[in-house]
Design a protein that fits this description.
This protein is 75% helix and 0% strand. It contains 12 helices and no strands. Helix 6 packs across helix 11. The longest helix is centred in the first third of the chain and has 34 residues.
Length: 312
Amino acid sequence: MVQRRIWRAFQFVAGALLVGVAVRSLALNWQSLRAQPIEWQLSPQWIAASVLVVFASYAMLIEAWRRVVLSMGEPLPFMTATRIWFLASLGKYVPGKVWAVAGAAVLAQRSGVDPAVAVAGALVLQVLALASGAAVISLTARDAFQTVGQGAEPIAGVVIVLSLLGVATLTSQPALDRIGRLLPSSWPTLRAIAPTMVAVAFVANVIAWCGYGLALLLLARGLLPGVALNLPQAVGVFTCSYLAGFLALFAPGGLGPRESVFLLLLAGDIGLKPAAALAIASRLLLTATEVLPAIPLLFRRDAPNPPSVREA
């Protein structure tokens, strides 16, 4: 009982600190956004549509991850999965991205999910995001790579190959067993995921990346209607810049690297100032849609799930 209370207190304090860091980032971005010397033309309907598309993309990712957990014989209600997903996402605002993975695994385990499934589910979130994002970039950002330079295409190819190998590893129990032998003994046994379920989750991630690009396009319409931005370009720029921030382990929330890549890919087409304004506005939108829903979820307690199919 005492350990449970200590854990709850720690969870609340850690969550509050993460929210504080994210809110601070939100406030700093807001000041930067206001400082941009650009003539804004606010269209609330386009901005609202952008927010709705972002949340729809979140819902698709949450359900895809939940289906992966269900396929491994563990019950996970949608609202519980939603709480885990949003709270774990706060971990990306702490340097070293491992907190997002660890947070998802721990929160899932605290909700009654088997530790091995919790770790597998948390890993699949990150691996599929990287692999599907690399695939989307290869299809939508070829022109952007020409802007960056010829050396970017081989790098992108290597990232795609490594990402697909990572996805394949998640479906191979022998490969996971070999990886498990390199991990501390305190880690639960890694469990493979059915290839068909990984494929479904991969497609869901691709659709979500396209949704994020659509949200960026709608946001541009709602703030800078004079900016000429098409959907493939928006998808490619958003995905490439987001993954750059994702891979920058030292940057909380990818702050800095993500915006730099965003400018590098888009400034040549729409101008430096509009690209900078759109990068900051996109950051503001994504941070708000991640942080604000997480605040009430910090105070919501989920009862442990009933025993899994394996344990029954």
